[in-house]
């Protein structure tokens, strides 16, 4: 195998992007999902619908709107530029934001479902056993929601690997900076270098498959639990 | 130092051949971002960090110049595309566009004529042959770019399609598969223009690259890749 | 008296309205029919129902008032839920440890191994809750609550799915805890024998209202209340231990100047140290175990005969039975006998009779 | 005898190995300590544990054999689980209807309204399970099982969280069902009084093995078994009803040619029709309620005196007590008295004594 | 609003595609998810990893491989052609298949999670109450898994609306037949007809938002249940 250094770089950026955005999403969405799972607030329905919306538009179009927003002339990008941080388009940070926005529903929904069933009596028991709310979340809710987190992580991670429409738009396909593996494959195909495209595809799919296998196999070793 | 080049997807393969030559010539490496011209245009308007833009058409570079985003005097035609009707099935009667009237034509691959000049050119040719009316009703498979159009054909799903000569020409100059080259005057010129972007911090380097593209060394490669001027 | 509370809970078709001052030592039995609000009250005390207008203070500390609410996990309580509710993802050992390790070592008054042994959980420590039987799960949930070394223990029918032998092992331990650790327990149970054995104080709930409350003894003999009228009616008496070994495995008590023999095994089951001579012993005598006689019969297997005075006869229990209220010195004793016998004996208030009690019927 | 079974279950640290032939009528009590395998056995009978090597047939129909296994939903059983396990997404009414509507109307032998009324569920029909108290949930789960009009009812501690009054309402109904619908019940319970009241037959499990089985009467008096040795020891006797109204709310029985008076209210609680004259009545006499005397005492509130012969004395129960096995005609009676009294009475096998029984201590 | 008839057609095809593929996925994946939730088979891990794979490759690349497979020269397409059914590329059926493949993980994973918690004791109870296995699934598992189905349906539906890379490849973007709204919007953006792009985006997003709102609001009216 003789991967070009650009391809290696692209794989590395892809991995970094998928890991960072998945972790950030899990952290950020857990409180949101918890709120959605337990609130009686009427606005909940609105938020639930909003969360699913990023999926509805074609990625490139979503990417286009994001680009307009995060770029130097956009509301967000312009503001950041004016305070000296710099706009977010064509940067890795911009990629992470785009990727997170796009994977939002894959994380919020499974977590919300898991939290909805992991609550109840056992949480009350834990409180009587001196566990503070945060402690309860960590010691009871998290382990009982393991499958939800797994699903959220797998969907978000895999989607971050494969998605390229939006990333292409706000990242700009800059080798070494924002060119991810999916775009590199696409480029090889465009350049009719099918051999390179197949090779990179196989590496991406193969590595993902092994990673997923490991994750699911590890999950199997945990106790399958249903709250009786 | 690196020169950041945004290039139309159809020219990516050719540019990949040119890059090492230019590096040898100037010591400068090219950082190539390929993609659709429409997308590049949108990105450049929103702060994309490119120095040079090799477009697939005339319109976008002109627009960029008009908007002050590109240097007016840098704009020039670096290549002129050649339209082919192509199939990998040798037995199809492509010559003279005969097959376009055939009842056995199920699907014809074409790039989206609204967004890609090759698509518009293909439509022109079909109209002149009086075949467009019939084919338009469900026989045209529209790809978003030339590569996809070719994939429609190579997968056997579309029997033939309008492509760029650059896609089917071999390195030795021979043409792969079954080809018909419509008269270049029968469709609007497929000029592809380049500009240096005004936001670039290295305007001279950009201009130097575009200047090099006009050199014989570069032109030989571009011509061998199936483009005219 | 320093567990003071006042709660009001409004549910669809149920209101709990309770204002109580309970002793902060010993066992308080919470008694009442299914749906009378026992669990709801325990939840209020634990802080699991956060409702306005309630108030609660324990040993001078305010846990709930108009402008204060100590959250559940900061209250020094142990709660045994009506359903075992073990953590399904933790092993039995981890379940037991859950509360234990959340208590500072210095505050641990109940030891891990002690609880495991007492509840016979040694063999299950590495199992998961779904691999235990119903009774085993219940034992774990008792242990889990005890291991937080609470200062107030709330138990909601903790023994419902335990067999008699297990109960006999656990009850004395609970008795010991209340005594040695000064651990007050609020104990919900439907089993009258459990309550009689454990409780010092009783609250009777009916449709969300306190129907009666007071020392167990007073409530059991109050003929306004259902206990005295039930077949489980019993009297609770206090006696002094005067002879730890009266032969034949018996111990001698002095009850209002009269001798009473009880089995030594009943004297101090589960207690760490035997009761010392002269100590006060709680004796339960079921009304149906008391036989009345005008004269002392001979050659009969009734060990104890107490001279008592008839106070009153309750005849409206049942077509065939009467409850005879008797006075024994300062204390009250009840006998449940047949109407026929009452007639034959011509029992009258004021009359002196012998209350014959089988030695074995005395519970301490 | 036509509920024949043989099961073998191997679990980590538990083996159930059971081979039984049980009567297919009346109530069979399944007794045993926590973890002895009662629930496991019920699950095997229901078909919830599908394990090789087992066999089961009920009234001539094979439910399980080497090459046959009738799935749970095709067995005409009702199962009351140890935990109520109501369907959380259905209202109480829908929970009750769940099994009911899955039975053809022609096969319904137990009516919806009848069950709802008996279990006092009228007020809860539109609620969801999480809005009920523990006891209320348990009642729903009993009702739900009954409403499938089963031909075999399996009940796993169905009354564990019910108060005495609720039990008193439900037990007679179960008795009626066994009789009127010929519905056999296998009943797991830790409450000896429930078992004595309901059961005709008993299986004693110990660590997954059948320790004893047989008619309740035989097991209760078998001094190899723990019952006779426990404080709950009781004898079960058969007597004939000879006088439905002997005055004072009493009814007269004839027990081995000797008269026995019992309360009329004990005679037929919950039964639709009163027992007719001459019918056989089941009488439970607790060993601790029997007083022995060498001569008939007078002026004493002991209604019944039966002349019996001492068969044997069991002295190794307890330091202070003895169990006296007595012969009453063809039947056996036990008395639990103090060692001291036994000594005073100089009881010897073969000796004739009076067994004095309080009228109220007779249960039918 | 003056939508072109092509746009209206595209919206209609989009809706049809999303509905059909979501329904078909729910039906087909329920048994698979059930098996995954309850099997002790070691191959389970393999299947779980495989199910997530369609996400890993860029949609256009996946689409290309699928096109090759389903087209007249592919193994599947060729076989279908030879038995007279005809190959699947450029047909609505092909779109449905592609869309389903791509949304597979969004349906399987939430259903599997829901089934894993909805089983247990209540199913045994239902069996003793005379419910056959299928009856139990319908009367107990389905209602208790409602949230899982909702998540699966929402993610799959929304994703079918927005995805276009794969659909383009195997559908051929044939107006009136396989041109969906997402491609139409993309075309408007590429053609710099931003007004048309905005209009169609707003319609797609607006309609989806209202639909999602309705779905979530309806869901709210059900009893929230956790298996105690
Ligand atoms: N899944 C399992 N894995 C291993 N052991 C188990 C499992 N389920 C039950 N056991 C063990 O099997 C034995 C019998 O359990 P079972 O539930 O039949 O007891 P039981 O007689 O019903 O007890 P209880 O009165 O407490 O309900 C127990 O010792 C229990 O620990
Ligand atoms: N969430 C609820 N909504 C409406 N009513 C409820 C709710 N929870 C409990 N109840 C009702 O409140 C009353 C008291 O319930 P509680 O659980 O306190 O009874 P309990 O005395 O513990 O009974 P048990 O002995 O059966 O456990 C019951 O009638 C019950 O139906
Ligand atoms: O969903 Mo995409 O734009 O085909 O990556
Ligand atoms: Mg309760
Ligand atoms: Mg059990």
TrEMBL record, chains A, E:
Gene Ontology CC terms, in alphabetical order: plasma membrane
Keyword Transmembrane helix belongs to the record: yes
Places the protein is found: Cell inner membrane; Cell membrane
Bilayer topology: Multi-pass membrane protein
MF (Gene Ontology): molybdate ion transmembrane transporter activity
NCBIfam families named in the record: modB_ABC
Protein name: Molybdenum transport system permease
Organism this protein belongs to: Nitrincola iocasae
Lineage: Bacteria, Pseudomonadati, Pseudomonadota, Gammaproteobacteria, Oceanospirillales
Gene field: modB
From TrEMBL, chains C, D:
GO MF entries: ABC-type transporter activity; ATP binding; ATP hydrolysis activity; molybdate ion transmembrane transporter activity
Keyword Kinase: no
TM helices/strands, residue ranges: none
Domain ABC transporter: 1-232
GO cellular component, one term: membrane
Keyword list, A-Z: ATP-binding, Cell inner membrane, Cell membrane, Membrane, Molybdenum, Nucleotide-binding, Translocase, Transport
Pfam families: ABC_tran (PF00005), TOBE (PF03459)
Signal peptide (from-to): none
InterPro entries linked to this entry: AAA+_ATPase, ABC_transporter-like_ATP-bd, ABC_transporter-like_CS, Mo/tungstate-bd_C_term_dom, ModC_ABC_ATP-bd, Molybdenum_import_ModC, Mop_domain, P-loop_NTPase
Domain of life: Bacteria
Domain Mop per the UniProt entry, residue ranges: 299-364
Family annotation (SUPFAM superfamilies): MOP-like, P-loop containing nucleoside triphosphate hydrolases
Protein name stated in the entry: Molybdenum ABC transporter ATP-binding protein
Species this protein is from: Nitrincola iocasae
Gene: modC
